[in-house]
Each structure stands twice: as C-alpha cells, then as structure tokens.
Design brief:
OB fold (Dihydrolipoamide Acetyltransferase, E2P); five-stranded mixed β-barrel; 5 strands; 23% helix; transmembrane helix; transmembrane
Amino acid sequence: MMKRPRGIITVIFIVSFLAILFFVLTDDKHYQNVSMVMIIEEKAHYIEPGKYQKMWVVGSNANDPGPNKERFKVMIEDARIYNLIEEGKEYFVSFQGEKKMEDPEYLYTFGQIEIPGGTQMAGEGVIKD
C-alpha cells in the first residue's frame, strides 16, 4: 500500500518540475535597463507617408573615452522629444531594451532624458492668471 502514495507523489513532482521548466524555457524575451550620460552621435528618422514615422538617435556613454565604446540606437515615440534632441550634445538618459531570442539586437526606447545639471519642472502650469 505504501507504493501507491509514493508513486503519486513522484508523478506530481515530475509534472510540477516539467511545468516550471516549460515556463522558464518558453519566455523568449530578454530585457535590459541602461542609465548613463549619453552623447548623441546621430539623429535620424524615416517617414512612410500616410502610414508611420520612425525616429531614433544613436549615442554612446559620454564618460567612456575608449575607442571601442558601445553604441546604442534608441527609438523615440514622441516627435516633440525628437525635435528637442541635438547631435553632439550630452544628455542624462535611461532607456529600456527588449529582445526576443531570435533577434540579434535589443530594441531600446527612452524612459527618461534630461540635460545633465539642468532643472526639471514638476506640476501643472497655469495658462491664465
């Protein structure tokens, strides 16, 4: 009689292990968060008339003097942000990257961008007194 409960416990353990393994192995996305002072090396866009527009910047860590520093292509969703960014300027940025297993590179998007040492206003502005 003791063999039957032991067999059921073994089967439950194996099924649980396989379920956990399945969920771990099927998550095919990887995520990366980056914060740095970035120097904007390139600012570009592509417009597909009547359909969409893509805007992005390419930059690297302004504090890395090495010749082989990593460059990041960061996509921009809001044209107002794109219009304010200038090539050759430094910005404090944080951005997030997402990549599927089959993708060669991360797709980065801005979370925050500001001028180093600049001020940030908070709250709502008044239009009329």
